[in-house]
Amino acid sequence: MKIGSWGRFPYSKNSVQPIDWLTQIPTVIDSFDETYLPFGNGRSYGDSCLSENGNAFGVRNSNRFLSVDWETGIIRAEAGVLLSEILELSVPRGWFLASTPGTKLITLGGAVANDVHGKNHHVAGTFGLHVRKFGLYRSEQGLVECSASKNKELFNATVGGLGLTGIILWVELQLRPISSSMIDSQNIKFSNLDDFFSLSREIDEKFDYTVAWVDCVSKGSNLGRGIYMVGNHMERGTLELPKSTKLSVPVDLPFSLVNPLTLKAFNAFYYNKQLSKKVNKLVSYEPFFYPLDSITEWNRIYGKSGFQQYQCVIPENNAQDAMKEILTTISTKGFGSFLAVLKRCGDINSPGILSFPMEGATLALDFPQVKGKTNQLFDQLDSIVSQAGGRLYPAKDAHMSGEFFRDSYSNWEIVEGFRDPRIMSKFWHRVTR
Ligand SMILES: Cc1cc2nc3c(=O)[nH]c(=O)nc-3n(C[C@H](O)[C@H](O)[C@H](O)COP(=O)(O)OP(=O)(O)OC[C@H]3O[C@@H](n4cnc5c(N)ncnc54)[C@H](O)[C@@H]3O)c2cc1C
Question: Residue ranges of the FAD-binding PCMH-type domain (predicted)?
Fold first, then answer.
């Protein structure tokens, strides 16, 4: 089986050796004569999920639930279980993921390895904070159980450790209780970036979930205008799984549908389609958390050259000014993105040594890959982020320089010390060698 990363840039396919049963692991490892990398569901955008030598260890088929306790909301499952598979079981029983990213189509192993975060980072921190323990297979030691109290250093190096410290075999997770599968949400329009920051400071404490869509094509006094989408689980209601309606992009398009004309039209339409300042809505959790999951293979709209996501986080003191500079650079250079997501992160520290979030604000934008141009823009953005004391998200990255990575993740050598010598990714090779 051949696989690539979600952004399809850099274009590099890996051969996957899938395992169905954990007992197959030693034989599969022996079959690789060079280094390999664990592979989940390939929802990372850049090269952090691609093996340096093209040898991927496929964990997705190892996807059984090992134990569930619906009194306490503690589940233990093999690392190939998808977050969507957990929700199918847990939502009807009144439990939800304590932290979830913007797609539910990721494995438990991938969620731990990137220490993913979601719309509730300001109140719940990252995914790793809700992991009670996991089993890790290391080529030289075999199975090692890790938790915040047992093999703590290895636990901290593995949460957000980019799959480098071993193969996560199973994960024990604490879920959060819910009384309804519906979200009581509000969409609030804001007219520029300053407006966003004051709104966020004023209302974030009232909502568990907050995220803003930003019109990144707008300029001048409209710079950074957008819609703030906030919500809480409804306090009472029914616990139902949403009916899934799936669209798909059936073929690889020969060229990108994303260009300055479509971007300008989409951004103006999306901002103006909401006429009043504030709209209250009761929505199912599915469209609220996972709007993009309803279109399978939406990454094909970027054509064969693929796309890159640029996601940075800037510390609180510099966030407002740096975000202005970033958005000004993007719009004056004529770039734009359908997806531009802005969120203020909270101060809850993650156990992960290489975890991405920090107290401040994070911005994520998708750009079609255009040879020469996209990386030229990224060089300019990197210098703004670096001067503001920020960093980039390895799960989304395909371009950052080794120097920028090592400066902004100054503890990277601790993870290198815990790296399984048989494991190497394209990303890690690029930024540490
Ligand atoms: C539409 C969309 C929205 C997203 N939104 C967010 C978001 O809001 N927040 C966020 O944080 N991320 C977000 N992401 C990124 C995504 O959540 C992460 O990249 C996630 O880690 C992907 O998991 P995966 O199972 O697909 O793993 P892969 O992408 O296959 O692998 C990711 C990493 O995990 C390692 N890995 C996988 N399985 C194992 C294992 N069993 N043992 C050890 N290492 C393993 C791999 O080596 C690799 O380093 C989004 C991605 C998409 C496509």
Answer: 1-178
How many Å apart are CA 225 and CA 240, to the nearest integer?
35
- Residue 220 CA to ligand 1 center (angstroms) comes to 36
The full set of domains in the chain, from first to last, is 182-400 (3.30.70.2520)
Query: What average pLDDT does the segment 148-157 reach?
Result: 98
Ligand 1 pocket test: which of 50, 55, 114, 423 has the largest number of ligand atoms within 8 Å of its C-beta?
A: 114
How far apart are the C-alpha atoms of 147 and 153, rounded to whole Å?
Answer: 9
**Distance (Å, whole) CA 190 – CA 193:** 8
- pLDDT band of residue 260 (cuts 50, 70, 90) is confident
Beta strands 14-18 and 360-368: pairing type? unpaired
- In the sheet that holds 37-39, the strands lie side by side as 2-3, 14-18, 55-58, 37-39
Max CA pair span of the chain? 62
Tens digit of each residue's pLDDT (9 = 90 or more) over 31-42: 998 999 999 999
